[in-house]
Amino acid sequence: MDFNSEILKIKNLTIELDEKCVVKNADISLKSGRVTALVGESGSGKTLTALSILKLFPRTARVEGEMLFKGRDLFKLPAEDVRKIRGSGIAMVFQEPSTSMNPVSSVARQIGESIRAHQKKTKKETNLRILKLLNMVKLSERVFSNYPHELSGGALQRVTLAMALACDPEVLILDEATTALDVSVQKEILELVVNIQNEKNLAILFITHDFSIVNMVAHNVCVMKNGVIVEKGTKEDVLHSPRHEYTRKLIACVPKFGETRKRLPVSDYSNCL
Amino acid sequence: MKKIYIGAAIIMVIAISAIFAPAIADYSPLEMDLSPRTILQKPSMEHFFGTDNLGRDVFSRMLYGARVSLSVGFIAVIISLIIGVLLGGLSGYFGGWVDAVIMRVVEVMYSFPTFFLIMMVVTFLGPSIVNVMVVIGLTSWAGLCRLVRAEFLTLRERDFVHCAQVEGVSNLRVMYRHILPNAMAPIYVSVTLSVGSAILIESALSFLGLGVQMPEASWGNILTAGKNYIDYAWWLTLFPGLAILITVLSFNMLGDGLREVLDPKAERKK
Prior knowledge:
The complex is a heterodimer of chains A (273) and B (270).
Chain A: E1 6-17, E2 20-31, E3 35-39, H1 46-53, E4 62-69, E5 72-73, H2 79-85, E6 90-93, H3 107-118, H4 123-136, H5 153-165, E7 171-175, H6 183-200, E8 203-208, H7 211-217, E9 220-225, E10 228-234, H8 235-240, H9 245-252
Parallel strand pairs in A: 3-8, 3-9, 6-7, 7-8
Antiparallel strand pairs in A: 1-2, 1-4, 4-5, 9-10
Helix pairs in contact in A: 3-4, 3-5, 4-5
Chain B: H1 2-19, H2 21-24, H3 58-94, H4 96-111, H5 114-125, H6 129-139, H7 142-156, H8 159-166, H9 171-179, H10 184-207, H11 219-227, H12 235-262, H13 264-268
Helix pairs in contact in B: 1-3, 1-12, 3-4, 3-6, 3-7, 3-10, 4-7, 5-6, 6-10, 8-9, 10-11, 10-12, 11-12
């Protein structure tokens, strides 16, 4: 397996929203078979960075920089080419499983949407593929014709994971994908993600604010504060010998058993460095 | 809830009698009999709603008139539904200049007094049932367009829409597969209510002689014919008037009932 091929490279990404810059000069690179965690508090620009990878920024946003997917700059590609990469090359799982499913359409139909958008398959082939995906995320085949409101949060997040994996993407973006779940379900999902990632040699960008998750899944870590990446390196380096003050504070926030919780001082959003 | 059942039941009765008009009617709606014994007869077992000044059976004419009213109502609304949903959807989904252009057109449509616009167009094109349907359809989509736009604007930012976009689903498919099904509730309500108003407009046009032409029957032109005899033949105006009233009322009741069921938020405000 080739662990060193850089599959997605974010270069000098700057996003301005209403004259305020929310992400500044971000550089992140993702490699096949590696999990990169993007850590930061809410409002630090993590999600916007992730959305911009697939060119899904708000209408009013001004974006600069390069987004190189296998050497092609997504920002310069025509909309139709970007659409083809969405789902089949780069896929994404959102934070809240219950809202990321269409309430009026069945599980199978929604998983099938992505397959239908990218591959020419007969109905039978599509259904087989959907069953295989349900298997892959360890869901019973019975959920095939269920509607989202009939499933639990954990099951729904598995479905959204199946949706993301439907067309064998090479890059997977998980935007706080386990935050909305309770701890035990969260652990199951994370294990599932790690297994699938190993199996498929995926490049994963894992967005989170939780260092215990980082510790569990990540190979590399980027720490973001107010839109700027303040520290990046391997997990071992960042977790054990953080260089930046902010990283140290974030790590100190992880609750330890029998200890009073330290809180992260709220940062000032008005300035943007 | 009761409203839905009452409204739907009355509409069903009217629709069935319109569809099976030839089977139900004992007389032809067009056949005249000018003998003094048959003109302007009071309602009786022989002629349920009496006869008009030309000896035609009013009940039969009203059955055939129901066909006109209902088909104008439905077809006009289908036309306005297609235009309204299409333009509203594009406007809400894409925003930007598409939205700006469509919304200006809607504002222009709104600022015309619709009824006079319809009268004018029908005068130019010549009165006929098809013209009336098309013109009512083409002039009544603005409200629906705004409604659909508003729905699309809010649904557009929902996670599952982003999710579908991230999967690489094309814009058109996102619109009709993911957004539209979630926007249907208010559309049902608005469409039901506008069937009622389309029927009302058709009756008014026929009454003024701009809709369905004599001798073809429509509730509106039965009224017109009857108004000259209102002093001594009340049945000529009462029954078509009641028919219009009851039909429009039941569509409004159905629409209102649907709103209560489909949009629980609106009910809570009461």
